[in-house]
Amino acid sequence: MKKRPHNPPKFFLHILGRLSLYEEMFAVSRDFEIEYKDISENHSRMKGFFWLLGSTLLVFYHYIVLTTKWRTVMFRNYLKIAFRQLMKHKGFSIINISGLALGMTACLLMLMFVVNETSYDNFHPNKDRIFRVITDWGKEGSRMKFAGAMPAIAPTLNAEVPEVEVAARVRYMTKTVITDAENQSFEEDKAFYGEPEIFDIFNWSLLEGDKSKALVEPYSVVLSQKIASKYFGTNEALGQTLTINDKPYKISGVMKDLPANTHLSCEILVSYETVMALGEYPEKPWNVWGDDHNYVLLKENVSAETLHEKLNNLLIKNAGDWYRGRMDLIPQPLSAIHWDNESRGDMGPKGNYLYVYLFLSASILVLLIACFNFMNLSTSRYVDRMKEVGVRKVVGANRKQLIHQFLVESTLVALIAAAIGIYLFIILNKSLYALLNIEFVIGSSNSVYLYGLIVLLVCVVGLFAGGYPAFFLSRFRPVDIIKSGPWGIRNKLSLRHALVVVQFSISILLIVGTLVVYQQLSFMKNSELGFEKKDVLLVQFPWGNEEVKKKYPVLRSEILNNPNVMSVSGVYTAPGVNSQFQMSARKVGDGPEKTVTLQALPGDYGYVKTMGLHLVKGRDLSKDYAMDEKESALLNETAVKVLGLDNPVGAKLLIPRNQEMVEMTIVGVVRDFHVQSLHNKINPMIIFIEPKMYAMMAIKISPTNTEQTVQSLKEIWNNVLPFAGFNYRYMEDAYHSFYRTEEKTGKLITIFTCLALFVSCLGLLGLASFMTSKRVKEIGIRKVLGATAGGITVLLSRQFTKWVIISNVFAWPVAYYLLSRWLENFAYRMNLGPEPFLVSGAVALSIAALTVGVQSIKAALANPAESLRYE
Amino acid sequence: MAELTKNEELILLSIWKLKEDAYGVTIRENFRKITGKTLNYGSLYNTLYLLLRKGLVVSQESEPLSKKGGRRKILYSLTREGEKVLGTVQKIHKLAWSDVPDLALEKKK
Fold first, then answer.
1. Which pick of A490, A537, A851, B67 has the fewest CB atoms within 10 Å?
2. Which residues of chain B are within 8 Å of residue A62 when distances are taken between CB atoms?
């Protein structure tokens, strides 16, 4: 029998060869190979194998022990040197570390905003298969999207469409007042009606109660922990009764609090059966839409397109052929909901990709500035340490070791900076996000990201910022350094100048951004809106209360009796209020295909006066004309244009009112006014009297003694409507709340601009002080030869001034491009003129001049005898 | 003259004995034959390294083995200096032990 050759496993030999210090000299692995063969031929293959394994492990162990030992020794030396360097140049270290720390803080703050925004609704395990059915309604040119769809959709999907795993309806409770045991009322705003299937779609977990039974009975309610503990404290909430809108509800479950990053932040979930029990379920559930949010969980591997098609087939089948082409039911992916700024009647805070990108790029820019700063300062510092590098090389350090050394140093600084930065971040994030009114989810599902980010940040900064100086320094030949000193290689340092230019370009970019954001904000706040926003109070009516409608005329005349009230009107919506009411209208005599969607503004006789609208043609609605109560309406200029009316006054329109088409006469035209924010174009609008739709009272008061007036109004209100609270706000504030995002952005960008500018200046300061210290002797000689202090200051500052001016050249086109893109968000926007650019250039230049100037003057005023004494 | 440790001496001797066939494995085997103890590879290579540095031993790569894929091994041989030192050691040993009876045998009795 022929024996198979005993070849040892190559793998072990490879390890042995790699790890042995003597491989090159003695071919160690070869010896082991022969020995292995001997053993396995004389004894057994098994024994040979174990012998080889044992030897390998042993070698491995010794290798680890030895290298760790020596590495530690060297590492300790690096650390020691690094600390000595830090201590030796304290001012310099402070500039360096604080710059980096501030940069990191700013970067973290912005990145967390980005993470927060992009993490919406990502905690549902089936998130990729969840869709919401939204509606797209109207004719070409006046289409509108609604977040809610028909209430019949979900049950039909469950019954008839096999591709749908489960579907459920959720309906927002517009007004929720909870009365507690002590008979105190609280208004809650995160209450919904929901079907039991909702638990199968979303990752909502019940702590108490049964998922399948909790929402079956009418008048049963599931509370979040937060609400449960608010009303029941530590007592068991399950099984208790809670009074909501004056009706008793049985608590059938307690739900875990939802994270803040969801569009559907539900704290009170009432069974959907309650809608039927309250008689609010429509008779024709296929022909009413807007209130019900239909969520669908698709089966695996079913495309949204399939659902889209089936939905619209169902719509035509059940709602009628009239809907064909007029309505489109669209399945909207869960992940898209947070970014949907278009659909009306939507819930939850909305995100804007523009701002996410803005912050992402700003955070990267600020970090870049900080890194450049660090690189710049470190490199300039390292020039002083050339001799150290030379000596290390002569003594035997190889390039790898030198790189290690400088990487250790830079990582150490990065770590210290990160520690400070994270500390600042922790102090600042709560207050900053509170200031900006961002609901923040740190500490929930996002904390993992946070830690990851921090680690990544330190690594990136350590490697990126430390890498350049490390490679830069270790490159030099020791002979050059020791022989000629650092001056022999001075010209190679021009990258630092480039870095300064980049830093300042970024700073200028940010300054221009800040200026333009604020200009646009003030443009929006001060531009002619077409109505008087000042001194108008909006007082909310309690919702759905029949009593209010009866008492309205009394309330109205009582309020008008107050001498300080100029006019008053019940309204459905007002500028600054997000709810909208649309209706389709057409001219009498036109076919139905010419129908136009108008934004309806139900009001009262005082509407035009209260809002301060300007009548362009015709007359105001007035009590003097009997027809005005039912048959007259006002249009705005856009509506006149859209309807194509040549003679608007006296024209007749067909408008649906109380489920039938009614003929209405146009008695006047008002000038266009901005009910919505300046992001949006003005809609065609129609104003008419409709007391059924009043949601609030708009009261125009005289600008003097407002506090007294408000007080007396409150008394009147409480007399007439004792059951309703006097919840008022100024229309001006409400309107300005449209610009909250812009205001937030403005505030944030200001903070970060200051930071960036500050960090850039730190860098410039460090660089300037270094450069002047290098030129001390030159300055001394110049002074001895007769140069004036002023001349020397100019000499030293000139270079930096040049860089800042170059930075402007780079920054302006980029800023112009980005800002024009941003301004495209607004239908009405400011003119982007040269002012913000020039101002930002001047600001950057003066700050830089100030920073460098102080250094230069100090150097220029020094006594030349001091600097020249030792040579 | 260079001082030798016991290990150095025995390894030097092994290389001399093995002539053309002196490489790691055979040296170690020879050492075991003489002393009855295994020399671990660490000590072997360290000692060889010292001997190389002292110039008593030179190393050279062997011809590749005839087998396909066979690798070279490192062979060692004594330098003139090495041979001289080994000779001196032998002389010292002979002189030192010349009038001593065989201790190991006596003990066994």
1. B67
2. 42
CA distance A549 to A198: 36
pLDDT, one tens digit per residue, over A598-653 is 888 888 888 888 888 888 888 888 888 888 888 888 888 888 888 888 888 888 88
The answer to whether residues A150 and A134 touch, using CB atoms and an 8 Å cutoff, is no
Mean pLDDT of chain A: 81
**Do the chains contact at A31 and B25, CB–CB below 8 Å?**
yes
Q: What is the pLDDT of residue A440?
A: 57
| Side-chain-facing half-sphere of A703: CA atoms under 13 Å | 3
Torsion angle defined by CA atoms of residues A28, A32, A35 and A37, in that order, rounded to the nearest 10 degrees: -130
Yes or no, beta carbons of B24 and A38 under 8 Å apart: no
Which residues in chain A touch residue B73, judged by CB atoms under 8 angstroms apart?
27, 30-31, 34
Token pair listed for A548: 């209010």
Amino acid at position B45, single letter: Y
What tokens were used for A105? 């803080």
SS3 A629: helix
Interface contact flag, B74 A27, Cβ < 8 Å:
yes
- For the record, the structure tokens of A645 come out as 């009316």
Residues 6+ positions from A319 with CB-CB distance below 8 Å: A150, A286, A287, A327
Nearest to A293 by CA among A232, A359, A340: A340
Residues in chain A: 871
- What is the per-residue burial (b if ≥16 Cβ within 10 Å, else e) of A719-733? ebbeebebebbbbbe
Token pair listed for A376? 């710049």
- Provide the 10 A C-beta neighbour count for residue A526: 8
Question: Distance (Å, rounded) from C-alpha B9 to C-alpha B34?
Answer: 12
In 3D space, the residue among A276, A231, A270 whose CA is nearest the CA of residue A252 turns out to be A270
Q: Which residues in chain A touch residue B47, judged by CB atoms under 8 angstroms apart?
A: none
Say whether residue A38 is in contact with chain B using an 8 A CB cutoff.
yes
| A222's tokens | 């599931």
The residues with which A606 forms a beta bridge, in sequence order, are none
Cα-to-chain-centroid distance, residue A517: 16
Query: How many residues appear in chain B?
Result: 109
Q: Is A24 on the interface with B (CB under 8 A)?
A: no
Say if residue A488's pLDDT is above 60: no
Q: Is B48 on the interface with A (CB under 8 A)?
A: yes
Calpha distance A622→A610 (Å, rounded): 13
Q: Distance from B6 to chain A by nearest Cα, in Å?
A: 21
The backbone torsions φ and ψ at residue A734, rounded to the nearest 5 degrees and listed phi first, read: -60, -40
For residue A265, what are the CA distances in angstroms to A174, A193, A257, A262, B46? 14, 13, 9, 6, 72
| β-pairing verdict for A292-298 and A241-244 | unpaired
CA distance B90 to chain A (A): 27
pLDDT tens profile A197-251: 888 888 888 888 888 888 888 889 999 988 888 888 887 888 888 888 888 888 9
- Is there a contact between A55 and B41 if contact means CB atoms under 8 Å apart? yes
A contacts of B61 (beta carbons < 8 Å): 27
Strand-strand pairing, A685-689 and A596-603? parallel
Q: Which residues of A touch B23 (CB under 8 A)?
A: 30-31, 34
Asked whether the beta carbons of A801 and A849 are under 8 A apart, the reply is: yes
- Residue A249: φ, ψ to 5°: -120, 140
Pick from B49, B52, B73: CB nearest A30:
B73
- Give the span between the Cα atoms of A706 and A187, in whole angstroms: 27
* ipTM of predicted complex: 0.70
Q: Would the CB atoms of A26 and B42 count as touching at under 8 Å?
A: no
d(CA A145, CA A344) in angstroms, rounded, equals 6
To the question of pTM greater than 0.80 for the whole model, the response is no
By the 8 A CB rule, do A845 and A801 touch?
A: yes
B48–A31 CB contact, under 8 Å: no
